[in-house]
């Protein structure tokens, strides 16, 4: 069972250092746009030097040549996972894969954000298929482009596994223990539900980072994710 990925919902390296100091084990952490744009690649190098795995969540979405060049630069950081927006299209995703050539970095594509409802998708994107159909379409295109998997909600993890194979990664954010607020997420699930429905990785943020005892909360979530509770 893969380790839960902790979303580092912080604005500075100092906060990250204080948080990581509370753990005595190697973690898998997510560095998103807020943190990366504040601290840059040096923060990623620092986290890697501490022995942690890094999912660099930058959601690249641009013309193929630009994305390929950007990925070539990100490959030098030796991150474990990075992503693009599947909406950028097949050629952009192929270009992103080329940019990572020679590295061990897993490349995944965002399908639909877990903050997006079907109504949002219809009104904002003018996409009139169902939300599941849209996500499955993006997943199939990502697989066609040679990517390692996608970001999706737990609701779509099972169907994607059936359509793309169980080795195709389904990274699922929007994970909340039952007693924790859903905040700005709309398509959420508990760690146990994610386990049952076929997620490959779960991403957990505030339920751990805002906890009074992050290490204890992480252990509880990891146990539930591993089917031990």
Q: Could you explain how this protein is built, in words?
A:
With 229 residues, the chain is of the alpha/beta class. The protein has one domain (5-225): Alpha-Beta Barrel (TIM Barrel), CATH 3.20.20. It is built from eleven helices and eight strands. It has helices at residues 13-20, 33-39, 41-49, 64-75, 90-99, 118-125, 131-144, 154-164, 191-197, 206-209, 214-225; strands at residues 5-7, 28-32, 53-60, 81-85, 106-110, 149-151, 169-172, 201-204. It has an eight-stranded parallel barrel, surrounded by five helices. Strand 3 (53-60), helix 4 (64-75) and strand 4 (81-85) form a beta-alpha-beta unit. Helix 7 (131-144) packs across helix 8 (154-164). It is globular and about 45 Å long. It starts with a strand and ends with a helix. The mean pLDDT is 93.
CATH homologous superfamily label: Aldolase class I
Measured between the Cα atoms of the first and last residue, the distance is 14 Å
Main β-sheet: number of strands, strand sense, barrel status?
A: 8 strands, parallel, barrel
CATH architecture name: Alpha-Beta Barrel
Percent of residues in helices? 40-55%
| CATH class call | Alpha Beta
Please write the string of helix (H) and strand (E) elements: EHEHHEHEHEHHEHEHEHH
- The helix/strand class is alpha/beta
Low-pLDDT segments: none
Can you tell me the number of structural domains? 1
* Shape designation: globular
Q: What is the quaternary state of this protein?
A: single chain
Helical run tally? 11
Strand order of the largest sheet: 1-2-3-4-5-6-7-8
Write a concise synopsis of the structure shown.
This protein has one domain: TIM Barrel (Alpha-Beta Barrel). It has helices spanning 13-20, 33-39, 41-49, 64-75, 90-99, 118-125, 131-144, 154-164, 191-197, 206-209, 214-225; strands at residues 5-7, 28-32, 53-60, 81-85, 106-110, 149-151, 169-172, 201-204.
């Amino acid at each position: 069972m893969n380790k839960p990925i902790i979303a580092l919902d912080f604005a500075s390296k100092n906060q990250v250092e204080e948080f990581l100091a509370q753990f005595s084990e190697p973690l898998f952490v997510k560095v998103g746009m807020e943190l990366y744009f504040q601290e840059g690649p040096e923060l990623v190098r620092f986290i890697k030097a501490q022995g942690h795995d890094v999912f660099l969540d930058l959601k690249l979405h641009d013309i193929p040549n630009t994305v390929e060049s950007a990925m070539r630069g990100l490959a030098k950081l030796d991150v474990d996972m990075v992503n693009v927006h599947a909406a950028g299209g097949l050629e952009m995703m192929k270009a992103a894969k080329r940019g990572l050539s020679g590295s061990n970095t897993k490349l995944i594509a965002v399908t639909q954000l877990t903050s997006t409802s079907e109504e949002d998708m219809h009104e904002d994107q003018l996409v009139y298929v169902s939300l599941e159909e849209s996500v499955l379409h993006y997943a199939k295109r990502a697989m066609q482009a040679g990517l390692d998997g996608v970001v999706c909600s737990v609701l779509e993890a099972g169907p994607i596994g059936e359509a793309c194979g169980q080795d195709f990664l389904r990274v699922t954010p929007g994970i909340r223990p039952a007693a924790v607020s859903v905040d700005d997420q709309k398509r959420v699930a508990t760690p146990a539900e994610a386990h049952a429905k076929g997620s490959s990785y779960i991403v957990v943020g505030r339920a751990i980072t805002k906890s009074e005892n992050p290490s204890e909360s992480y252990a509880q979530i990891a146990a539930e994710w591993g089917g031990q509770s």
